[in-house]
Amino acid sequence: MRRRPPRSTPSNSSAASDVYKRQGQGHEARLCFKEALKIDPSCHSAMLALAKSYIGEGREDDAFEWLARVVTEHPEAAPEAVPLLERLLFDQGRFGEIEPLLRKAVDKVPSNTALMLALVDLLARKGEVEEALVVCDQALEASPGDLRLQLHRLRLLRRKEDYRAFDRALDGLIEQADRGAG
């Protein structure tokens, strides 16, 4: 009988799962991740690892379940989960399902800039530039000095071909940089 590593903490479970993954024993690794979640149900890294393991074995529905949980229950970890979720849903022809998940997460934590940016990028890729600008402006209200948000807003204004607003926003960004450089 094979001896299992101790599983008393999420980190022990994670370390054990790494050993199993290297040995090509995905099922055993997933058991370790699930054990970690029993110890700490908020362990989003275990959820992400479960999803990646399921993706690796072609179990897309199981992967989707865990990625969706990360985005909706742990929005702080969404930046890592969203690209995996987008790729998974795109490959399955279910890309439209990501927007409601992102909106739900943004509603839960509207101050999460990374989530807002993920939603802005998604909307822009869908060609919904006006809606992307609205979301970007909402994010800027919460984080007015965030350079990433400001740059995304510039890009959206350029795509919209609103060059007056683009020039004003760029001038504001330059002034902000000048104040910071002095």
Low-confidence stretches: 1-20
Radius of gyration: 20 Å
Supply the helix-strand structural class: mainly alpha
Overall body shape: elongated
How many separate helices?
10
Name the average pLDDT.
85
Number of strands: 0
Write the H/E string, N to C: HHHHHHHHHH
Oligomer: single chain
Characterize the largest beta sheet: strand count, sense, and whether it forms a barrel.
none
Question: Which helices and strands appear, and what pairs or packs with what?
Answer:
Blueprint (H helix, E strand, L loop, with lengths): L9 H13 L3 H14 L4 H13 L3 H14 L4 H14 L6 H11 L4 H13 L3 H14 L4 H14 L2 H19 L1
Helix pairs in contact: 1-2, 2-3, 3-4, 4-5, 4-6, 6-7, 7-8, 7-9, 8-9, 9-10
What does this structure look like?
The protein is an all-alpha fold and 182 residues long. It is 76% helix and 0% strand. It contains ten helices and no strands. The protein is elongated and about 55 Å long. The model is unreliable at 1-20 (pLDDT under 50).
Q: What's the gist of this structure?
A:
The chain is an all-alpha fold and 182 residues long. 76% of the residues lie in helices and 0% in strands.
Which properties best describe this structure?
182 residues; mainly alpha; 10 helices; disordered N terminus
